[in-house]
Amino acid sequence: MPEGYTAGYGIPISVLLLILIAVSMMVVAKRTRLGRYIFATGGNPEAAALAGINIRFLTVKLFMIMGALAAISAVVASSRQTFHSNDIGTLDELRVIAAAVIGGTAFAGGIGTIHGAILGALIMQSLQSGMAMVGVDAPFQNIVVGLVLVIAVLIDTFYRKRTGG
C-alpha cells in the first residue's frame, strides 16, 4: 500500500443503505395497512375498490414511494462512479424485471416479497458479472438476460397452473 493509504475493510455504505431500506419496506409491507392495501390492489384492483380501498390515492402514494427510492438509487449509483451523467441506469429495466420475476414476483400482482426481489437482483448481478468476466459482448448479455426472463416467466406460469394459483 502506498504511504497515506489504509486498507479499508467492512461493509460499504450502499449495502448498509440497502439493508436499512429493505428492512423498512418489509415492515411496511407486512405490518401496516398500506402494505395490505398494496397487496390487495396488486392481486385484484376491482375487489380492492369494492372493499373500500381508494385505488387512485394508493397509486399516488406508491408513485411517491417509488420516486423517493429511485432518487436514493440514483444518488448511490452516481456516487459509486467517478463521473456523473444523466443516463446512468438507462436500459436496465430488463434486468430489474428479470430480477423481480426470478425473486418470485408474479406479473399478475399480489404475490412477491422484498427479500425475494433482493435475491433475484443478486442472481442477476452475479450472472451479469460472470458474463462480463468471461468476456461476453454486451448485446449477447442482453440476449442471455432476456432468455433468463422468458424461462423464469414460463416456470412461474407452469407452477401457478399446476398449483392452481
| Radius of gyration, CA atoms, in whole angstroms | 19 Å
Secondary structural class: mainly alpha
Mean pLDDT: 86
Total number of beta strands:
0
**N-to-C span:** 57 Å
Strand fraction band?
under 5%
Total helical segments? 7
Task: Tally the structural domains.
Answer: 2
Detail the poorly predicted runs: none
N-to-C order of helices and strands? HHHHHHH
State the helical fraction.
over 70%
Morphology call: globular
Main pleated sheet:
none
Brief overview:
The chain is mainly α and 165 residues long. The protein is 72% helix and 0% strand.
Describe the model.
By secondary structure, the protein is an all-alpha fold. The protein folds into two domains: 10-86, no CATH class; 91-165. It is built from seven helices and no strands. It has helices spanning 13-31, 33-43, 45-50, 55-79, 93-102, 114-134, 138-163. Helix 1 packs across helix 2 and helix 5 packs across helix 6 (114-134). The longest helix is centred in the last third of the chain and has 26 residues, at 138-163. The model has no long low-confidence stretch (mean pLDDT 86).
